[in-house]
Structure formats: C-alpha cells, structure tokens
C-alpha cells in the first residue's frame, strides 16, 4: 500500500510538472527542510534502502514461526500408466491394463535445536542493523540534499555578484568614455574598459549557467523532474559555534546510525557463534504424516477374469471334496455358492467396477505415521581431538564440519568487533575534525567580511581618484579585481561555513540543535 501511494505521488508530481512546463513557468518554492522531506519521498537511492526493511521483518517472523510452529507440507500427484507387462527385477507380472493413480501426503515437522532457539535473537539483531543502515542513509541523504541546496544558493549569489560586477564594469566603461570625450582620458583606457566589460559578460554567462546546472542537480538529488526554477526560501545565518569536540564525540558514539548498525551486526555475529557451537547439542525432530492413494484401471476385464478363475477353482475344489463325502453318506458342501453362473459373474463384475471407480478423489487412507527422532554428532574414531569451549565447558571436537562452521562464525564475530572499533576511531577523528573545520569556517567568514569591506572601500577610493584624474585606469582595474575576489571569497566562506555545519551533522549522525550553538 505504501509503495502504491508513493508511486502515485511520483506520477502525480511528474504529471503536474509536465503540465506546468507546457503552460506557465513552474517555480518550486522549497525550504531546506522541504527539500529534505521531498528527497525522502522520491530519491531513488534512498527508496532502494527502504526496500531492505521488508525482508528483515520477514526474517524475524520466519525465525519465530520455526521456533513455535511446525513446518507443514502438502503433496499431491496424479499419474497415468499405460498398459503393458509389469516387470520388477527379473519377475514379470503379465500384461497389465492402463491405470490412473492419484495420491496425497500431508506432513507436519517440528525441529528443535540450538539454532531454532537462538535464530530469533539473531534475526532481531540483523533487523536492527538494517534499520540503522536505513537511518544512516537518511542522514546521508540529508547531508547530500543540504550540499545540493547550498550549492544552488552559492552559485546564485555568485551569479548575482557577477551581474553586479558586469554593471560596475559597464559604469567604468562609461566613465572612461566620458573622460576620453573631454580629453582627460585616453583611447587605451577606453579599450581596456571595453575588454574588462567583455570579460565580465563572459563571467556572468558562466556563472548563470553554473547556477542552472546546480538546479538540475538539486532536482536529481530530490528525485523529481526539474522545474523551471527553484525558489529556495531558507534563510541561513552564520553564528559562532560553541560546541566542544569531546561532548559531540560522546554523542556520536551513542547515536551515529552507522556505528549502531555495526554494533547490531556484531550482536548478530556473536549469536551466530553460539548457534554454530549449538551444533554439538542434540536435535529433536517430531514429524507426523497423513497420506492416501487411489488406483483405477481403465479396463476391469483382467480383474473379472481373475475373480472368475478364483471362483471356479473354489467350485472345483468344493466338488472334489464332495465326492468322498457322498460315498460316506455325509452331508455335502454347498458348492453352488461358488458356481460361476452368468448372474453371479455379472454381479461380480459390477462389484469390481464399483471398487475400481476411485480416481481421482476416492482415496484409501493410509495409517497415520508419527516419528520422534533424536540425533547428535559423535566423535569420529580416527579424528585428532582437541578440547574446545562449548557453552562454558570443555568438550571434544566431534565433527570437522562443525568445527569449521564455529571457526568461521568466530572469524565473522572478530571482524565485526574490529569494524566497530575502527568506526569508533574514525568517528572520534571525523567529529573532532568537523568541529575544528566549523570553527575555522566561522573565523574565515569573519575575516573575509573584513576583507570585503576593505576591498570595497579601496575600490570606492580608486573610483574617486580615477574620476578626479589622480589615478590611472589600471589602478581602478586592480582595485576592481581585488574587490571582486574579496566578494567571491566572502560568498564561498559563508557557504563553506554551512557546508562544514552539514558535515558536522553527518559525522555526529543527527542534526544538531542550532540554538545550542551560540
């Protein structure tokens, strides 16, 4: 149901976008949180991760069903056997008519051993691992959407700055033309201003194209068709962070979903070792079965002939026995009951035909069968034995295959333990680095803000000097270049701060409360 609703939403959004593109330009207004929620609904990679939840749930249910419920099986078959001689080994049973056979078998089986007892706990741990991986994918999706959202804003601001620079360069061109007209400037200065304006036009064109491409990538990240334009409504502020690395490291070690997923996988691997060792313990198997079959011949003549022959043999035997009895004046046996008269043969045929009419559902039920079996591995006589721990005790190694499975499970557990330890070390380094980067990004914004103000003041002074004839046009171009670089650096510093903040959220494994940062 949820997948059907999701597909309907995707189709509806795509149809709405297609209709809007054929009429009025579509402008999609999004805050950063709106963009994240949209990506959670439509991003294909994230939706693929959600698909892992269903098998994990079924694995838990299956483990519990094997523990508490017997396994049921139903078998049915219909067979046609053509007429011919029936042979078994060197014995021949003569020519048999064609037959139709149907059979059924209903079975229940319950197996109880260490694996069935421990499997639910292992399945629950594996499900926790899957759910934490999904949560980790959501955190990564949030970081990816944030980066794409910030990239659109950054490139739009750079395009706006390039537009301002183009207008400023056009103003300088008009000033150079005016100075040349009154004889205060030279044609060389005018040409230089024209070249600078052309370069500003190229920079503006490239900046606007970069902003359009960033919009396409944002739509791709969200998992939707790109609208004509985005209206990105979030107001992002730069603030002084006051988080300390040790507290964030402690938080990350508790809540980071990737680490929690590995820890759950480690629990599953630990249970896997116990399951492998439980193979040394007995297995109890209880089974019950009900079955039946039908067998119907296509022609009963052979059966009738056999029955008549048997009846005639009984009649002849009876007559033979009556001869001495008659000589001794003893009462005679009633041989007439065996005489194969036409009426008796006809009744015999009717009886055989009724008994033969079984296919396909007139089953002859077989005796019910119940089996209670007990098994456990024993030591091989020629095997080299060594003591191994089993459930806290020492036992002999009974089977090399079991020993191999135990060693493999133990290796998986040790690998999982090392993966958890490696990720803990990585998280400590990543979170601490992210805190340092955020602090550095904040100080960079403050310094770039001062540099921008100084460069703008220098440009203002250079413009006044050139207007009054106290400075050259090359000095004005140098000041303009310096101001442009300072303004672009300030824009990059602002968005670098927000990218560093997003990286810190991703490293910790949860969005940090901004109110606690200042």
The portion of residues assigned to helices is 55-70%
Q: Indicate the multimeric state.
A: single chain
Our measurement of the CA-to-CA distance between the termini, rounded to an integer number of angstroms, reads: 44 Å
User: What is the chain-wise order of helices and strands?
Assistant: HEHHHEEEEHHEHHEHHEEEEHH
Strand residue percentage: 5-15%
Category by helix and strand content: alpha+beta
Count of discrete alpha- or pi-helical segments spanning 4 or more residues:
12
Poorly predicted ranges: 1-11, 18-22, 380-386, 390-397
Largest sheet features: 5 strands, antiparallel
- Assign an overall shape: elongated
Radius of gyration, CA atoms, in whole angstroms: 45 Å
The chain-level mean pLDDT equals 86
Number of strands: 11
